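Dear colleagues,

As part of the handover before I leave the project, I'm documenting each prediction I ran so the next person doesn't have to rerun anything. This entry is a single chain, and its sequence is reproduced below.
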Amino acid sequence: MIDIYLKVIFPINTPEEFRVETNARDEAVSELLTDFIHHQVGAGKDPSEANDLDVYEIELGIDLSDDSWRTRHNCGNKGLRDGILMDVVRRIGETPERVKKVDIDVQKINWKKDGF
């Protein structure tokens, strides 16, 4: 069961306009994103072609019963996804108001695939 949800919306041409929608505490978002990125270390290179889009969306779900992660994104490549998330972590420190609290039924999200 997914307990914590984060959605990153990242316009590549105006990255300062990024936003994060989450049901987590605002002050926990950077730590959660950093934790996800650390879990990706050692996962190996993703040979998939990166998508060339104007706006990238990355959804992360955390199951607190076993500390597992679920992801969906339209990046096409996990390296691009993780690079965007690293940039967002940095930007949250500069503009924490870009994090918005949302009320979402995370159980209705299809977490079975890594993409939209």
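DSSP finds two helices and five strands in the chain. The CA atoms of residues 67 and 102 lie 21 Å apart.

All the best with the project,
I.
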